[in-house]
Amino acid sequence: MNLILFGPPAAGKGTQAKRLVESRRMVQLSTGDMLRAAIASGSELGQKVDGIIKRGELVSDEIVIELIEQRLPETEAAGGAIFDGFPRTLAQAQALDEMLAQRGKKIDLVVRLKVDDEALMQRIAGRFAESGRPDDNPDSFKVRLGAYNAQTKPLLPYYEGQGKLVEVDGMGSIDTVAAAIDGALDGVTA
């Protein structure tokens, strides 16, 4: 099964993906984690990505798609992937559909975590105070949230038109959100 966890930055996608990795043995493909690893490597690509993220901009489709494509064999061996933070644009969604179709696979379910923008700002401010993670800087986060709302929200009709979109209230407790996601997944596999 291939699943997309959809929602703005700090909506809880990473938390839920990690839980699904443990409970369902799927592979998490977190573009955020992949990009942070590229930055940590100090490579030329990592330095380029670092500047883009510090400005609060989104990394190009080409870079992100290449990172994802490199990991697809691993997901197939595990029996499925959790796409976390990808796709973010219609071009990425179409590229993902093409990549998977070439491998005889598809996206089975898209779970949208519905959250409140103001609550996210409060969540990020707290997370930044604890972690100091550069991409959690509240000023950069405002730019990222604006980019999400402008570029990523338009994916909702794309996946809704394919009959793959399920919405979950992302403002509940971790366990409540987890139970709703599990229910959606069980509905697809039934």
UniProtKB/TrEMBL annotation:
<dbReference type="Pfam" id="PF00406">
    <property type="entry name" value="ADK"/>
</dbReference>
<dbReference type="InterPro" id="IPR033690">
    <property type="entry name" value="Adenylat_kinase_CS"/>
</dbReference>
<comment type="pathway">
    <text>Purine metabolism; AMP biosynthesis via salvage pathway; AMP from ADP: step 1/1.</text>
</comment>
<feature type="binding site">
    <location>
        <position position="144"/>
    </location>
    <ligand>
        <name>AMP</name>
    </ligand>
</feature>
<feature type="binding site">
    <location>
        <position position="92"/>
    </location>
    <ligand>
        <name>AMP</name>
    </ligand>
</feature>
<comment type="function">
    <text>Catalyzes the reversible transfer of the terminal phosphate group between ATP and AMP. Plays an important role in cellular energy homeostasis and in adenine nucleotide metabolism.</text>
</comment>
<comment type="similarity">
    <text>Belongs to the adenylate kinase family.</text>
</comment>
<feature type="region of interest" description="NMP">
    <location>
        <begin position="30"/>
        <end position="59"/>
    </location>
</feature>
<keyword id="KW-0418">Kinase</keyword>
<keyword id="KW-0963">Cytoplasm</keyword>
<keyword id="KW-0547">Nucleotide-binding</keyword>
<dbReference type="GO" id="GO:0005524">
    <property type="term" value="F:ATP binding"/>
</dbReference>
<feature type="binding site">
    <location>
        <begin position="57"/>
        <end position="59"/>
    </location>
    <ligand>
        <name>AMP</name>
    </ligand>
</feature>
<feature type="binding site">
    <location>
        <position position="36"/>
    </location>
    <ligand>
        <name>AMP</name>
    </ligand>
</feature>
<feature type="binding site">
    <location>
        <position position="133"/>
    </location>
    <ligand>
        <name>AMP</name>
    </ligand>
</feature>
<protein>
    <recommendedName>
        <fullName>Adenylate kinase</fullName>
        <ecNumber>2.7.4.3</ecNumber>
    </recommendedName>
</protein>
<dbReference type="InterPro" id="IPR027417">
    <property type="entry name" value="P-loop_NTPase"/>
</dbReference>
<feature type="binding site">
    <location>
        <begin position="85"/>
        <end position="88"/>
    </location>
    <ligand>
        <name>AMP</name>
    </ligand>
</feature>
<feature type="binding site">
    <location>
        <begin position="10"/>
        <end position="15"/>
    </location>
    <ligand>
        <name>ATP</name>
    </ligand>
</feature>
<dbReference type="GO" id="GO:0004017">
    <property type="term" value="F:AMP kinase activity"/>
</dbReference>
<dbReference type="GO" id="GO:0044209">
    <property type="term" value="P:AMP salvage"/>
</dbReference>
<feature type="binding site">
    <location>
        <position position="31"/>
    </location>
    <ligand>
        <name>AMP</name>
    </ligand>
</feature>
<keyword id="KW-0545">Nucleotide biosynthesis</keyword>
<comment type="subunit">
    <text>Monomer.</text>
</comment>
<keyword id="KW-0067">ATP-binding</keyword>
<keyword id="KW-0808">Transferase</keyword>
<dbReference type="InterPro" id="IPR000850">
    <property type="entry name" value="Adenylat/UMP-CMP_kin"/>
</dbReference>
<dbReference type="GO" id="GO:0005737">
    <property type="term" value="C:cytoplasm"/>
</dbReference>
<feature type="binding site">
    <location>
        <position position="172"/>
    </location>
    <ligand>
        <name>ATP</name>
    </ligand>
</feature>
<feature type="binding site">
    <location>
        <position position="127"/>
    </location>
    <ligand>
        <name>ATP</name>
    </ligand>
</feature>
